[in-house]
């Protein structure tokens, strides 16, 4: 019996894949695709469908997530760490974590001293990451090393994946495992299609620390069209000023027209709008902060459109997306690829 889309998303979300440590996600993709794929020196995975001389399209999704790495093991057995990617300090204290070692997972917690012992500390104070430690229950460096913990081991904040109001899901690392999952489903839809040109499905690395994998793609490959998949921080959250046009969960994928590093192609917007109208797929449009892999690949000369899945609480432990938005994104990508390849 085929898995539900939600179950497939959960499988991908629960894989660890801190920027620079994407091996488990990469291995999952290889197994899912089941045919030879190219891996470049950076670690990006590339699958080419079609070899014709017609137009070329790349659909790109980053596989990495924000997280931590072990930066030191203290003599008292506690672990210091460095933040990898955009995690705010206030999201770190009192979190359960998992250290991924060569011997397996070592569980622990980022400690937060009880208020009973916090003399002179204002409860509103945010403790910065460099002042925090991971407690794995050891009392010496040697004891921690016996468990398998080593300098530079990746650490993820523990994930819990659950349904919210039947049609939404909540978890950490939905950014950007929703994009990874969408790309896998697009492969399912296109794998037996004959193209006049070429469609390349690309899973990139190290997006969260500066679009590093996409930079390699921009410098080594050329495409006529590029779609960059990512999440899109919604403006329908409590307490937000409405200086951006509202984007809502459940109202369709978002064409990310302007962010801090790029302006998307107006021509490509019209084409995707026409496809969405024909296929009766809801569509939203956004202006926002941040950036995507599309910003760097656009500099190679490609006609580029970042498309986002609306998401609340980006980079937190409680990111939320609507499953209908993911389903509609897969439909939109499939139909757009076929339209370009007519």
User: What is the count of distinct domains?
Assistant: 2
N-to-C terminal Cα separation, in Å? Answer: 33 Å
CATH superfamily of the largest domain: Zn peptidases
| Gross geometry | globular
Describe the model.
By secondary structure, the protein is an alpha+beta fold. It folds into 2 domains: 5-65 and 172-340, Aminopeptidase (3-Layer(aba) Sandwich), CATH 3.40.630; 67-157, Peptidase M42, domain 2 (Elongation Factor Tu (Ef-tu), domain 3, Beta Barrel), CATH 2.40.30.40. It is 26% helix and 27% strand. The chain contains 8 helices and 17 strands. The chain has helices at 5-13, 23-33, 141-146, 174-190, 212-220, 266-279, 293-298, 323-340, and strands at residues 38-39, 45-49, 56-62, 67-73, 79-84, 96-101, 104-110, 134-135, 154-157, 162-164, 168-171, 198-204, 225-233, 254-258, 284-287, 303-312, 319-322. Strands 1, 2, 3, 10, 11, 12, 13, 14, 15, 16 and 17 form an 11-stranded mixed sheet that branches. It has a 6-stranded antiparallel sheet with strand order 5-4-9-6-7-8. Helix 1 packs across helix 4, helix 4 (174-190) crosses helix 8 (323-340) and helix 6 crosses helix 8. The longest helix is centred in the last third of the chain and has 18 residues, at 323-340. It starts with a helix and ends with a helix. The relative contact order is 0.19.
